[in-house]
Model the fold of this input.
Amino acid sequence: MEALDVGRYRAALDHQGFSGEFTLRRLDLDRDLDLVHSWMNDPEVARFWQKPWARHRIASYLRRQQGSDHLAPYLGLLDGVPISYWELYRADLDPLAEYYAAHERDAGMHMLLGPPPCRGRGLGIDLLQTVSAWQLEADSRATRVVAEPDVENAR
Done:
């Protein structure tokens, strides 16, 4: 995937006990595998992501994401501490495009909040708005960001 330069963006976050500088950085498989594996195996995350897999299987999945020609995995950091996992992608090049009226250069995202204290407090909405704005700024040809949240995820 042509790399979106979202790593240069910074956002001041002040949300119900979460404050600091929010940034994204590309996933580093060697450094981040154990953390992402633990998040994917958390029952609340697994309920929606459906990947409560063994470490080697998560590693394989993340390698595929890193090698994708239309998707890039990131960690979301609050003052340098990982709090979220992101997949930013070209939705018009994704299988998702078969299920909606895709526009050329549509951006897409998947996100999970890792630490349980981050969940259920509306933080995800703030982060989704922030990162979607970054996606549109990073690709001036994109006109919208799409996502496909699980219908069972009431939040």
User: Anything to note?
Assistant: The mean pLDDT is 92. The longest strand covers residues 81-90.
